[in-house]
Amino acid sequence: MTEPKHAKRSKKVPRINHRTVVGRRRRAKTEEKIIRSALAVFARKGTHAVIDDFIKAAGIARGTFYIYFRSTEQLLEAVRLLLTDEHNRVVEEALVGIDDPITRLGTGIRLWMWRAEHDHAWAGFVARVRLHGTKSLEAPMNDLRHAKRLGQVNVPSPLAAMHLMEGAGTSALHGFLAGRPVKGYGDAMTTVILQGLGVDADTIRTILSRPLPKMKALPRHEELPD
Amino acid sequence: MTEPKHAKRSKKVPRINHRTVVGRRRRAKTEEKIIRSALAVFARKGTHAVIDDFIKAAGIARGTFYIYFRSTEQLLEAVRLLLTDEHNRVVEEALVGIDDPITRLGTGIRLWMWRAEHDHAWAGFVARVRLHGTKSLEAPMNDLRHAKRLGQVNVPSPLAAMHLMEGAGTSALHGFLAGRPVKGYGDAMTTVILQGLGVDADTIRTILSRPLPKMKALPRHEELPD
Prior knowledge:
Order of helices and strands of chain A: HHHHHHHHHHH
CATH class of the domain at 73-209 in chain A: Mainly Alpha
Structural class of chain A: mainly alpha
Oligomer: homodimer
């Protein structure tokens, strides 16, 4: 599609000069440094961490911290969003080529279990810090809506479906972290969640028997600065 | 059964005198006072509460605290056990007369939802402080085993079933506390959990249509000292 001839460029073109660009980049870099080093702090201390922990980890002055974040709660929210976006991205990439909604949803749950089992650094702070609830379930809830239209699921309300996935998904993190899980625990958790969504036994079996797609480019949180 | 004649009483009969009994009673009372006032502290501050909060709330000296608890973690565990025991007791009493295992289990879940909706003080600190995981699910897991023997449920593993109930049950607390839930949210959560346990649709409908038994003598946490 070509632009219609009468389309006008916005009159509000921001004035950019070299100094502005450099300053903006530096600010973005500092903000990312604070968020990334906060990941390691939350991984160690959970939500008990205080502002001193964060400025020490990021190697910045207290005043600098407050330029970017008004409170540890705000920083926590930024960390949540970062983790959520990262996980959504790697799962989305792994699901490329799968079109059937319930297979996408079920495979997404399997990938969650796989990561919980193999990426303990991630599981550790997602269990403690939590992902951004609504945002982390945007993609699965989208698949769920499509699956519902096709009669693949049977749930009394989307909210209940969301809370089931959220709650059982978090429980599973703790299960893997406790080191308890017996063989097949991830598949068992996937099964009870899909059953909860009203998926029939044959479909669950088919989903579990598919080869699990790889999650590429997982961020390696364990290599974060300490 | 009568005692066999050769049974001997233990030679280690503890020596009890009036002073010991009084002292023991006083100690038990102080311990309970600390635990009960800790409930209110955890309700306000969650697990961020520190030892100063607890000694202030209980009106005791720091030294006295350490006679009973070595750390806030140990106190937290005592609070967890108290809340767990209390909830188990009221639910158990409400279920008297119901013998069918899946009806017991399903009704127990409905009672959980009912309490989450109507007893926000309780929901608030169970969501923050958590119950004693294994102990709070002893009774439901017992019903689950019986239900499994009767073919009323279909779960790949008891651990997965437990984590499903635990996770979705906690999620529901947050759901009620957020004030979001639409009408029928509690029933919807009960439905997805029972579906997750592999209970068939007709049985779920029957369980949900039964009159909900009353939970008598609910502890009134909101009246705890502030």
